């Protein structure tokens, strides 16, 4: 099996034609491979390349884990708190994941160097950690291995941006489902992981451990060996009394207690953490937590005109499996009865669970109607992907040109209403939708739209519905 079986289920370009991998520039070691410095030949821009040796992938699950890591990185990488993936490649010997280069080193190393952080500095760093966890959870991902070693600074500056990396143990999860695989790193693992019965609450525990270390320089549960550490995690006292804790604010200690609550049902959620006074009270305007990624993307989609929505439906058919794999899992998560469509009830349940703001049924119905482009009363898989795909994945020049050509089949250099009608029938749109597009085309583009106008429309953030 090793060396012959494929991790990526389609052919990829030869990485050595696109990038120069710098031997001797080893940026880190992992379970399956090594991360190197690499340079894109066409631009000269430097990236990090994680090279995974396929000889070390000894069973089917190992191959699946690497493929899932690639999908999850694509799924999350538009978030500013996550290292951006540039692409994944494979040959007979290795799988290569090319990603943004973070040259400032690990958060772990900075903690060691500093001893511990001031509360203000700790709050700034910790917000990044928690916002990354929120991004994961709102997109249906459980990280399962949060620790300071998995956060990298973009530069060596004191105020450098911090980004999460290494999603090798992350999985897509379904709400209410119980997981039993023991994973993670000894100091950071939640008690319910050791008891083999857990859900996404484990990431809040691990984040709480990181906060404790940021403020004190040491982990809260410590022993000479792994068995001892696990015993302390399950039953040991939480020390918030000895040095340096007398100098730490009550607010910070309150947050740590609520994150390191052993009962996951009583433990703070990610939203609770982001709304805690210690996170908000840092002499700047309150940093209101974001609503879920699904909600914000549906809001954005609802502002788009029908031509743009139809173009997105075409473009998603051309995207690679890894680019949409995470959204496929997210669709399954919302589609509670697994019948291949999302109903109003299922969308309402998902949005009300994840949203900070209280959504009314009318607001949810409005978002449902926006995503339901063929007006059949449900959201189908392709409609969901179009409505929730991050726009940065869509707006590549080759995608826009391909979409324009799809409409302009007679190659006149313009999209006309007759061409739109033909394309609309391809996606099951009714005459009412096509009349709307006709009005829009006549009002905004004199009855026809050329490529430059089409590209500008696709890149514009908020067209009227």
TrEMBL record:
PROSITE patterns: EF_HAND_1, EF_HAND_2, PROTEIN_KINASE_ATP, PROTEIN_KINASE_DOM, PROTEIN_KINASE_ST. Transmembrane segments: none annotated. Keywords: ATP-binding, Calcium, Kinase, Lipoprotein, Metal-binding, Myristate, Nucleotide-binding, Repeat, Serine/threonine-protein kinase, Transferase. It catalyses: L-threonyl-[protein] + ATP = O-phospho-L-threonyl-[protein] + ADP + H(+); L-seryl-[protein] + ATP = O-phospho-L-seryl-[protein] + ADP + H(+). Residues 322-357, 359-394, 395-430 form the EF-hand domain. Gene3D superfamilies: EF-hand (1.10.238.10), Phosphorylase Kinase, domain 1 (3.30.200.20), Transferase(Phosphotransferase) domain 1 (1.10.510.10). One of its GO terms (molecular function) is calcium-dependent protein serine/threonine kinase activity. InterPro entries: CDPK_Ser/Thr_kinases, EF-hand-dom_pair, EF_Hand_1_Ca_BS, EF_hand_dom, Kinase-like_dom_sf, Prot_kinase_dom, Protein_kinase_ATP_BS, Ser/Thr_kinase_AS. Its main location: membrane. GO terms for biological process: intracellular signal transduction. It is a lipid-anchor. Residues 21-279 form the Protein kinase domain. It comes from the Eukaryota. This is non-specific serine/threonine protein kinase. SMART domains: EFh, S_TKc. It is found in: Membrane. Belongs to the protein kinase superfamily. Ser/Thr protein kinase family. CDPK subfamily. ATP binds at residue 50. Its EC number is 2.7.11.1. It is an enzyme of class 2 (transferase). SUPFAM superfamilies: EF-hand, Protein kinase-like (PK-like).
